[in-house]
């Protein structure tokens, strides 16, 4: 309602109430002193007539400001120029813009002002796009007998997990990680030892149609095996102090393409009690490891037009609680500088059993490289198994891992052979804090074995 109409209507109602009150009062006092109370009905009648005249004048002015409309099509054009109406809190019907806000369809659109932006923000239902942030962090004390290593306290990753429901079907997800240096690129340390860096590890906009079709675009973790999609950048979520070396991140020397920038489609497959799921991904792939790259994840520009793809299929049968088993196949073409291209094929299989008290993880991976124009084929097998059992607030665990990179491997010859066990115990004094103590023995080809002891305090907030 126009402000002037609102004020006149309010004034009219007030006069009417005053007339009723005076009439009631005159009836009450007429018995006691009828000669002293005089009700001027003519005055009230004149005031109400004046209000009616003012209302009629306002309607004439509003009609003069409205755009000419000869048919329904012109009226619809005016509505389209204003955009969709916004819902009003507590109203069951859409709000109608006042006549003063309506502009002709041919009128030029002015540049939005700061006040316009503020008004638009006020109209938004921020409860639908409210950011939710969950934080994770850890502090460690570690030491080993490796040459050049020192016993040190270390700040782990500060992980901010940010999500927002953009709409009923769209959702935004990101992982912002603050990490202490130095940055380690395939065994080469770059930057100040105690500096901090910021990495945008995941950056996804997701659309969910139903349980059978979901699509996401941006930077995420590839669905190779199980560990990479079950455990992200938070050590608090993991039983052990760190990831298996096979699934370590690219910037820490891991051999697998852990991240991908592209598009992913996932969902369930109607298969009864088998609980089948699928994941199909296509993206930039990773930069070739040799020569060394500052950033192995190709976030903006791919070094070639060929795109990597990955397809995963896994089952969660209803008859075996906590069981998941699956396969995945990854394909890419790597282009090392001044060297022939290399076809890369990664086959991964996993079988895990996770229950409230028990955890048993098993994964095996075969990374196969074929050099173009030659008969050279390099197969890198890798695997790990991890077992844990909870006793109250304590969870002792054991992990054995193995990876064997052939000599003269064209992509990551520095990894070589490494294998060995890890033993540890996790203690949860509260639901948001975990204290871990872990011992690692790593045996390598043509190098001395490394013994390492680490204590880690992980937390979420």
Describe what you observe in this structure.
β14 (358-371) and β15 (377-389) form a beta hairpin. Helices cover 17% and strands 43% of the residues. With 461 residues, it is α+β, with helices and mostly antiparallel strands. α1 (3-30) packs antiparallel against α2 (41-65). The longest helix is centred in the first third of the chain and has 28 residues, at 3-30. A 16-stranded antiparallel beta barrel has the order 1-3-4-7-8-9-10-11-12-13-14-15-16-17-18-19. Strands 5-6 form a two-stranded antiparallel ribbon. It contains 5 helices and 19 strands. It folds into 2 domains: 3-123, no CATH class; 132-460, Beta Barrel (Porin). Residues 28-37, 67-114 and 184-190 have low confidence and may be disordered.
Any chance you could write out the topology, listing elements then pairs?
Layout: H1 3-30, H2 41-65, H3 72-82, H4 114-123, E1 132-144, E2 152-155, E3 158-165, E4 170-180, E5 183-185, E6 188-190, E7 196-210, E8 213-221, H5 227-230, E9 259-269, E10 276-283, E11 308-315, E12 323-334, E13 342-354, E14 358-371, E15 377-389, E16 394-404, E17 417-430, E18 433-444, E19 447-460
Antiparallel strand pairs: 1-2, 1-3, 1-19, 3-4, 4-7, 5-6, 7-8, 8-9, 9-10, 10-11, 11-12, 12-13, 13-14, 14-15, 15-16, 16-17, 17-18, 18-19
Give the N-to-C terminal Cα separation.
48 Å
Number of domains: 2
Helix % is 10-25%
What oligomeric state do the depicted chains represent?
single chain
Keywords:
alpha+beta; two-stranded antiparallel ribbon; 43% strand; 2 domains; Porin; 17% helix; 461 residues; 16-stranded antiparallel barrel
């Amino acid at each position: 309602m126009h402000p002037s109409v609102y004020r006149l209507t309010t004034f009219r109602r007030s006069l009417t109430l005053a007339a009723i009150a005076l009439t009631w009062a005159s009836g009450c006092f007429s018995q006691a002193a009828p000669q002293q109370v005089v009700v001027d009905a003519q005055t009230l009648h004149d005031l109400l007539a004046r209000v009616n005249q003012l209302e009629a004048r306002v309607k004439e002015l509003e009609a003069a400001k409205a755009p000419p409309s000869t048919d329904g099509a012109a009226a619809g054009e005016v509505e389209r120029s204003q955009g969709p109406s916004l819902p009003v809190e507590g109203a069951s019907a859409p709000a109608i813009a006042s006549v003063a806000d309506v502009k002709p369809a041919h009128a030029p659109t002015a540049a939005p002002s700061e006040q316009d932006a503020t008004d638009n923000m006020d109209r938004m239902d921020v409860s639908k796009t409210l950011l939710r942030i969950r934080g994770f962090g850890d502090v460690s004390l570690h030491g080993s007998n490796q040459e050049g290593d020192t016993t040190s306290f270390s700040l782990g990753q500060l992980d901010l997990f940010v999500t927002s429901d953009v709409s009923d079907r769209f959702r935004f997800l990101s992982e912002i990680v603050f990490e202490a240096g130095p940055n380690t690129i395939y065994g080469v340390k770059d930057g100040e030892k105690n500096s901090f860096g910021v990495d945008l590890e995941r950056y996804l906009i997701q659309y969910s149609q139903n349980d059978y079709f979901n699509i996401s675009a941006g930077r995420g973790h590839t669905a190779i095996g199980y560990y990479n999609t079950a455990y992200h950048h938070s050590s608090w979520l993991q039983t052990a102090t760190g990831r298996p070396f096979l699934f370590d991140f690219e910037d820490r020397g891991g051999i697998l393409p852990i991240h991908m920038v592209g598009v992913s489609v996932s969902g369930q497959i109607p298969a009864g009690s088998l609980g089948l799921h699928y994941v199909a991904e296509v993206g930039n792939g990773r930069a070739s490891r040799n020569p060394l790259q500052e950033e192995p994840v190709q976030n903006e520009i791919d070094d070639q037009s060929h795109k990597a793809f990955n397809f995963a299929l896994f089952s969660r049968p209803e008859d075996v609680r906590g069981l998941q088993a699956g396969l995945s196949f990854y394909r890419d073409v790597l282009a090392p500088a001044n060297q022939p291209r290399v076809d890369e094929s990664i086959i991964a299989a996993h079988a895990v059993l996770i229950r409230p008290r028990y955890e048993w993880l098993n994964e095996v991976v075969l990374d196969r490289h074929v050099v173009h124009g030659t008969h050279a084929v390099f197969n890198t097998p890798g695997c790990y198994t991890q077992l844990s059992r909870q006793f109250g607030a304590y969870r002792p665990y054991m992990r054995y891992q193995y990876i064997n990179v052939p000599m003269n491997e064209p992509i990551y010859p520095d990894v070589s052979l490494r294998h060995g066990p890890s033993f540890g115990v996790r203690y949860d004094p509260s639901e948001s804090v975990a204290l871990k103590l872990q011992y690692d023995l790593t045996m390598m080809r043509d190098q001395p074995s490394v013994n390492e002891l680490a204590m880690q305090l992980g937390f979420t907030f």
